[in-house]
């Protein structure tokens, strides 16, 4: 690119990532495609993350390190690295995952050859905390369909949102709303990207997702490794703790009355109206969403019951405090 602008920007949001951060950065610096900038946004880490990042930034001028004065939540930090980017293409990177050396090159070659594609990723397998193979991730989504309502239907499926870590056209990202501060925000973000354009999956295992006890998936979605093929036996009890995920995405919501499943449903519904679709396509999207909701209605009722319990406890505490204050005077 001209004026020293890189073709690709890589955004790495991180909080307390010292254990795996060096391996993740080394994996990116070892890429055969070298025309990129690496933007690291440190979410006020309290471990050695800052020390590690500054040392790498001194050695490689492609690395730009930023540190937030306070923790702004996971979603805001994800959005921040894109806001700081300048490349034609953009890729998010996690502080604990690894990539094959030709991951970037192969993704960019695909996008360069087909302007109708907006995102390119690869097949995935899981590694443990020592980098050893655990299992393949074999969910196949037909997100290369030319019909947006069919891509929408596919992206309503049960899957893990690793496509987020593919290479994406920055022009498409600018058309999509930023990642939200609510449960399933990454899946809803992908859904909206899918309405904007086609995805392509390289049929090679080039992305290695690390599974370990400190990651958000393990903390709030302990059964996530069961969601790794197209024909699993799912139960609603296996779903993530969306209240905890909401707080992870936006820490300011901790302790507040939330309706996480209602919010997710609302965001899915809004997605249908974020991009221009014809009447037939919108109807198809609404039908797919209703099918997705079927069997999960009790989760919406659960939100209302939990909110009522929290509200009742708050009223009781307030009443006790007022009585104590009255008798104290």
UniProtKB/TrEMBL annotation:
Record's signal peptide: none
CDD domains the record matches: Glyco_tranf_GTA_type (cd00761)
GO molecular function per UniProt: transferase activity
Keyword line: Transferase
Gene3D superfamilies: Spore Coat Polysaccharide Biosynthesis Protein SpsA, Chain A
Stretches assigned to the Glycosyltransferase 2-like domain: 9-172
Matching Pfam families: Glycos_transf_2
Key word Transferase present: yes
Protein name: Glycosyltransferase family 2 protein
Organism of this sequence: Brasilonema sennae CENA114
